[in-house]
Amino acid sequence: MVKSQFSSLKAWLGVLAAFVLIMTAGLARHYIFYPEPEEPPSVAVRAHTVESEDVLEKREYTGQVESVSRVNVQAQISGEVLRANYREGDRVEAGEVLAQIDDSEVRARLEALRARRRSAEEVLASQREELTAARAEKEYLTAEKERHRNLFERGLTPESQFEEIESKQRQAVSRVENLAARVRSQREQVEAISEEINEAQTRLSYATVRAPVSGVVVDQNLEAGELAQPARSLYVLDSGSGYRVRFSYPQEDVPLIATGQEVLLHLPEETRRGLITRIHGALTSHSLATAEVDLPELPESLKSGSYVSLEVIHAHHQEVPVVPEQAVLSRDDSRYVYLLEEGQLRQREVEAGPTEDRRTVVRELEPGTEVATGAFLELSRNYDGQPVTVYEDN
User: Fold this and answer.
1) CATH 3.40.50.300 fits 43-55+318-390, yes or no
2) pLDDT of 46
3) Has this prediction a pTM greater than 0.70?
């Protein structure tokens, strides 16, 4: 009887041991083939709040102070003089129209260029939409490729199906590259036309010849009906006294400089605001253009012949959202920032505007939004959805 009970107990222990062995093997297989997903490591970043500030779009040059007495007013474009408004001995004030040169050809060219740009911008907008759709398809197929790769490696999908998805993904990548190249080319075309428009607008402003300074006309060299040519003198004015700052700039900056633009003159003890009063029509032997800014009073610490730093203001953007310059990153054909949302990075594509004092205008963002900067974010890797650790400078 005892021996029979012992044999029964031994049999049950054997069954129990076999069950434990099977369960252990099953768990081991589960953790080998279905490991627990690892938490992505956090990225160390600095947090910056989007502020609403004024931003000046400007360029810096170096000018030289000159004494002013007589000013030679020259034509800067060719054309028939339609009106000559002043005679020798007349008193003129700065900004008054001395003469008007025929601008019909320049106006016709400007309208044609504007029409070309509108057409090119429509093509660019269409190409950008196509590129956005192609990128979305590429991302989808890339994810599908990885999914089918895992299934194929586990023997759950045929090789032919995996190869088909892989082929489609390669085609999508190639299509994105081709479309991105077309977008870049079309954008360059739009920018080139815009430069031509700026140049035509500048030439159009030259048709109206204004007095750069107040003074008396001491010489009139052209009458109505005569042909004006670049660098040919129209009037000579005697301003009586005063100074000016003359500065040179490269040929590629010609479309950016025009009479009447505001200038910041950085003098030894102060910064003064002035206006560009005159632009020379001809380039120097070094392919540099020349412009002048009036300086009615000269500080005691500054002498004629001294060099000063100046900045020409191209645009004044008021109360616009700005972020640190390093927060705007680039990859492929796009620019983007990383937003801080609930302890994670969220990538946001943006159209970055001008930069001043290491602040970049990003109009798509609302003031108060938090953006991230950090050394790791400057790499090309995608950190969208990554957890972050925010740190502050000591």
Assistant:
1) no
2) 87
3) no
